[in-house]
Amino acid sequence: MATCEVCGNHYGMTFEVHAQGAVHVFDCFSCAIHRMAPICEHCRVQIIGQGVEVEGHWFCGAHCARAEGKAGIVDKV
Predict the structure, then answer these.
(1) For 22-47, how does the pLDDT look when each residue is reduced to its tens digit (9 = 90+)?
(2) pTM for the full model?
(3) Same structural domain for residues 41 and 27?
(4) Residues 16, 4: contact at Cβ < 8 Å?
(5) What's the number of domains the chain is made of?
(6) How far apart are the C-alpha atoms of 8 and 64, rounded to whole Å?
(7) Is residue 47 domain-shared with residue 69, that is, in the same domain?
(8) Using CA atoms, how far apart are residues 7 and 26, in angstroms rounded to an integer?
(9) 54 and 42 in one domain?
(10) HSE (CB half, 13 Å, CA atoms) of 46?
(11) Residue range(s) defining the domain that contains residue 31
């Protein structure tokens, strides 16, 4: 039985996420999203979908990237 690194719950069905050389342990996807999802630098929402990375900055979509002055950014459809 492992412990979720976000909520501290001791749970028999935790899972690990391996990212950037670190191992994270969670008891649910909600905790994993809380810890792992990047945050849009314009509207501050957690980016659960694809998002847009521009010059090392993360945005939830092209609209927020453009609102921060990033030119030529479009959402993929």
Answers:
(1) 999 999 999 999 999 999 999 999 99
(2) 0.77
(3) no
(4) no
(5) 2
(6) 34
(7) yes
(8) 8
(9) yes
(10) 9
(11) 1-36
72 band by pLDDT with thresholds 50, 70 and 90: confident
The token pair at 25 is 């342990």
Instruction: List Cα–Cα distances, 6 to 15, 35, 38, 62, in angstroms.
Output: 13, 7, 16, 30
Sign of the CA dihedral with 38 first, then 47, 50, and 3 last: positive
Rounded CA gap, 73 and 10, in Å?
43
Q: Rounded distance, CA 61 to CA 20, Å? A: 23
pLDDT per residue as tens digits for the range 47-60: 998 899 999 999 99
Adjacent-strand bridge partners of 3: 10
